[in-house]
Write a structure and sequence with these properties.
Radius of gyration of chain A: 27 Å
Largest interface: A-B, 59 and 59 residues
Strand content of chain A: 15-25%
Low-confidence stretches of chain A: none
Number of strands of chain B: 5
CATH class of the domain at 1-12 and 439-476 and 624-776 in chain A: Alpha Beta
CATH architecture of the domain at 1-12 and 439-476 and 624-776 in chain A: 2-Layer Sandwich
Oligomer: heterodimer
Strand order of the largest sheet of chain A: 4-8-2-16-13-14-15
Low-confidence stretches of chain B: none
Distance between the termini of chain A: 43 Å
Shape of chain B: globular
Number of strands of chain A: 31
CATH architecture of the largest domain in chain B: Roll
CATH topology of the largest domain in chain B: Ubiquitin-like (UB roll)
Number of helices of chain A: 20
Structural class of chain B: alpha+beta
CATH topology of the domain at 1-12 and 439-476 and 624-776 in chain A: Aldehyde Oxidoreductase, domain 4
Strand order of the largest sheet of chain B: 2-1-5-3-4
Mean pLDDT of chain B: 97
């Protein structure tokens, strides 16, 4: 059994800087209020922008009259969709690592001919104060023709259902997530089904014939929001040389630059995006909403313009993650071997194609070795806000279905759910149901560590109490990433990296840089560079920054090391091969008297050949999946339906935890978002598709009082491709909690709830139904 | 335009005067007019606590206070917490415990925790969780925040 400590690191390798817990470089600025976030900018002559949003879920826009708004004193500009480019509606690759449909993107930012959800942006105003801008919005006259709305995937797929996009094509490719429209001469009818695809492995029918026990299970989850505390904000300024500067709080300022340039119809080289600190994103700040609006307003007004969203706009106008419906069927032999699995996943995309049903399909069964499988995905447009990525996009809802089905299977087989997972765990060489053959993964190790944890053996007594476990798999993403280093004459280093830092990655990237050079991480001063000062870097997403940008910093450090060795060779008049570099000290191999520290050599860089700098751009493969297994104890109050989390333990493979405190933080934060998803969070819509709970009072995220401490165990099964063995860690921890909590509640009350959230109302309804079923 | 209101206040110990509209919140005036952007806006309706600060020692959501209300009162924001030489123990413990990720909620949490420790220098874990329930953090799951506050309380108690 593991020694009980709240947070345990099962370390696999020791280093000087990697694996330590330095204070983050940007910490002091963030605890003193000096750090500048999206809304914290103020420029001379700056105007305030505000967005007019559709009051209807589905309506044709017949006309927009902006004259009265323009005449209001203090108003400088009003823009509509006509002020943005209307590119082709084909899927395009801007080489960002994700695909786009630029027409859909443009029309989501400002509606063109139709409003497709309540809260859809219609027009925007720039004025000398936010209050005047707000008054001006009320003066814009929009003539809408209201259309019947489709508010669920089921309705949207019925024959004759109203179409959101009259010419929407049904793709049959999991990779073409942005969707597209039919060619003009294509006789096919349009549809609300944007994508339908499947994955097959082995012979699923035969597999079920071999099964002794079969479980059939259906789940549903509500749309929920990422819930970052910082509302979206963007500022734009056109400069006198025709260039555009953007200040934005985003997960990827290079994407913001590239997409805004296209929608403003200017070359990318004319646009500079400056990253502000970002107050949380969790996927939703990978989508561009406000920057093109600010740019269009600023161009028209001839002044810089800042646009900020209110909390209601964030809920109504930015991406929730999809509502889902999933059917899953599992077959196992008597001795507990999974032999067949089948799943059908229907995800609401919102108003434009692109729900995360494809990663959901690709990850839900991946923890397991299943010889025969069939997974099918449906991406359906409905009159709700366009869904955006949310932490391990699509997978938590899919794992809710899969991991509760496994619990049912274990109950039927009478086996321990962790023993079952160990028995069926995917390992190196296992082919996933959706195709990939896994490299070394650490699933069995997380299950074993969970089994060995004192929590799993701790007694849990009393009525209405239950324990649940569940696991989760996230593939982790990589992408292009860049870094640049400048060695100062005093031996300290400026490290400029391209990834916005949302949770301490300046430091986790710097630790890898410092490790290579054998210098203290405190001598490295990292910053997130604007798009003019460092090479292209893909979004802070897919749990990729410590992996990909850390790798870029690793390469930069190697280049710095080579250059320092050359300088030493020049000073000592010897061959490069005769210089040894060890732990920040350069040494002549044959002459022990000849010795220079990193700092000493840095001081001599200018006379020995000039300033030492280096840059690297990488796009490394082999991000390395991360798996986790969670244990939770709950107590259900049968009077109120409230669920209390009594104890929570999360185990996860981090490959190598570069900064264990921030890995723990990711695991704890992810687990708590998953708890919120399981118990309380949901968009309430009325029958017109209008969100009824667009505030933090009514959209109920977990507070400190709702939770116990979240204990973590970091397992380190090194990712064989990464120099330090890193696997991304941010997303995996949100996957297991939904099912873990559901399994615990089921064990506490003896009834299974297959719909999220398991809010007090739903728990009570379940208990009352059960009582009346039992004649109580 | 309506007459603007003349307000005399003390901001982090310094006398400050400003003119504001009757509809402007304290948060708006601090951020947009006085340039004190350390206090954050997360919801503007008192639900997230990101704009927490003290008015005459009382913890408030500054989005729910009208700027005109602070006439003659003392406003203390995150910018006034550290001395030039040293961070406040709460700030130091937030750093040591990695109690922030994105950091947008951090000024509000620190100001709320400061008010707690002034009232109750030795809070239990439950008391910390209860007091901070009005501040939302979406990144950390609160674990490290609660530990940081408990540790800061111990440090402050020891040096008191």
């Amino acid at each position: 059994m593991l020694e009980y400590e709240p947070n345990i690191v099962l370390s696999n390798a020791e280093y000087n800087e990697v694996g330590k817990r330095p204070i983050r470089h940007d910490g002091a600025e963030k605890v003193t209020g000096q750090a500048r976030y999206g809304a914290d900018i103020r420029l001379p002559g700056m105007l305030h922008g505000m967005v007019l949003r559709s009051p209807h879920s589905h309506a044709r826009i017949k006309s927009i009259d902006t004259r009265h708004a323009e005449e209001l004193p203090g108003v400088h500009a009003v823009v509509t969709a006509g002020d943005l480019a209307q590119p082709s509606s084909r899927v395009v690759d801007l080489a960002e690592g994700v695909l786009h449909n630029m027409r859909f993107l443009s029309n989501n930012i400002l509606a063109a001919d139709k409003a497709l959800y309540k809260g859809h942006a219609i027009a925007a105003v720039a004025a000398t104060s936010p209050h005047i801008a707000e008054q001006a919005l009320a003066l814009i006259q929009v003539d809408y023709e209201e259309l019947p709305a489709v508010l669920s995937a089921e309705e949207a797929l019925k024959p004759g259902a109203p179409l959101l996009h009259e010419r929407l094509a049904t793709m049959s490719n999991a990779n073409l997530r942005p969707g597209g429209t039919l060619d003009d001469d294509d006789p096919t009818d349009g549809s609300n089904l944007a994508n339908q695809f499947e994955f097959r492995l082995g012979d699923v029918e035969q597999g079920f014939r071999e099964a002794d026990v079969i479980i059939e299970h259906e789940t549903a989850t509500a749309a929920i929001h990422q819930g970052y505390i910082e509302p979206h904000a963007a500022t734009a300024q056109w400069n006198s040389d025709g260039t555009l500067t953007l200040w934005s709080s985003s997960q990827g300022h290079f994407n913001v630059r590239d997409q805004t340039a296209r929608l403003m119809d200017v070359p990318v080289s004319k646009v500079k995006a400056i990253p502000m600190e970002i107050g949380g994103g969790f996927g939703a700040k990978t989508l561009v909403y406000l920057e093109p609006v600010a740019a269009a307003l600023a161009r028209k007004a001839g002044h810089p313009v800042k646009v900020m969203m209110s909390r209601t706009e964030v809920f109504e106008g930015t991406g929730p993650t999809s509502g889902t419906q999933i059917q899953v069927k599992l077959g196992a032999t008597k001795d507990g071997r999974l032999v067949a699995a089948e799943a059908h996943l229907t995800y609401e995309a919102g108003a434009f194609p692109g729900s995360p049903v494809s990663p959901a399909c690709q990850c839900m069964m991946s923890p397991y070795d299943i010889p025969n499988a069939w997974v099918e995905g449906f991406d359906v447009v409905v009159n709700k806000p366009k869904s955006a990525a949310y932490r391990a996009p699509g997978v938590p809802a899919a794992a809710f279905a899969m991991e509760t089905a496994i619990d049912l299977l274990c109950e039927k087989l009478g086996v321990d759910p962790l023993a079952f997972r160990l028995r069926n765990s995917a390992k190196e060489g296992t082919r996933a149901p959706t195709g990939p053959v896994w490299p070394r993964v650490g699933f069995a190790e997380t299950v074993q560590a969970a089994k060995d944890h004192p929590h799993y053996a701790a007694p849990l007594e009393g009525p209405y109490r239950g324990r649940g476990v569940a696991s989760g798999f996230w593939r982790n993403n990589t992408g292009p990433a860049s870094a640049t280093a400048i060695i100062h004459n005093d031996g300290t280093v400026k490290l400029i990296e391209g990834s916005p830092d949302i949770g301490g990655t300046r430091t986790s990237v710097s630790q890898q840089f410092a490790e290579v050079l054998g210098i203290p991480v405190t001598d490295v001063s990292p910053s997130v560079g604007d798009t003019d000062s460092v090479g292209f870097t893909s979004v802070t997403g897919g749990s990729g920054v410590t992996f990909k940008t850390g790798w870029a910093a690793y390469e930069v450090a190697q280049e710095i090391k080579r250059k320092m060795i050359e300088r030493a060779a020049r000073i000592w008049d010897c061959e490069v091969g005769e210089v040894e570099y060890d732990n920040g000290v350069l040494q002549h191999a044959k002459d022990p008297e000849q010795r220079l520290t990193f700092k000493q050599l840095a001081a001599r860089q200018n006379p020995t050949g000039g300033p030492i700098t280096a840059s690297a751009g990488v796009n490394p493969g082999g991000a390395g999946p991360s798996l986790g297994t969670h244990i939770v104890d709950v107590e259900v109050d049968p009077e109120t339906g409230k669920v209390t989390i009594l104890r929570y333990t999360a185990v996860q493979d981090a490959g190598k935890a570069i900064h264990p405190s921030y890995v723990e933080g990711q695991i704890q934060g992810g687990a708590v978002q998953g708890i919120g998803w399981a118990l309380n969070e949901e968009y309430f819509f009325d029958d017109k598709g209008h969100m009824l709970n667009s505030s933090f009072l009514d959209y109920r995220m977990p507070t400190s009082l709702d939770l116990p401490m979240i204990d973590t165990v970091i397992v380190e099964v090194a990712n064989p491709t990464h120099p330090y063995g890193v696997r991304g860690v941010g997303e995996t921890p949100i996957i297991p909690p939904l099912a873990a909590v559901a399994n615990a509640i089921s064990h506490a009350i003896g009834v299974r709830i297959n719909q999220l959230p398991m809010s007090p109302g739903r728990i009570l309804e379940t208990l009352w139904n059960e009582q009346s079923r039992n004649g109580g | 335009m309506a007459t603007r209101i003349h307000v005399q206040t003390t901001l982090n110990g310094e006398a400050v005067e400003f003119l504001c509209d009757s509809r402007q919140s304290l948060l708006e005036v601090l951020r947009d007019d006085l340039g004190f952007t350390g206090t954050k806006e997360g919801c503007s309706n008192g639900n997230c606590g990101a704009c927490s600060l003290q008015v005459d020692g009382v913890l408030v959501d500054s989005c729910l206070v009208l700027a005109a209300e602070v006439d003659g009162q003392a406003v203390n924001t995150i910018e006034g917490l550290a001395s030039p030489a040293q961070l406040h123990p709460l700030q130091q413990k937030f750093l040591e415990h990695a109690a922030l990720q994105c950091g947008i909620c951090t000024p509000g949490f620190i100001m709320a925790a400061k008010a707690l420790l002034e009232k109750n220098p030795k809070p239990t874990e439950h008391e910390v969780r209860y007091w901070l329930a009005g501040n939302l953090c979406r990144c950390t799951g609160y674990d490290k925040i609660v530990r940081a506050v408990l540790d800061a309380a111990e440090t402050m108690e020891a040096s008191a």
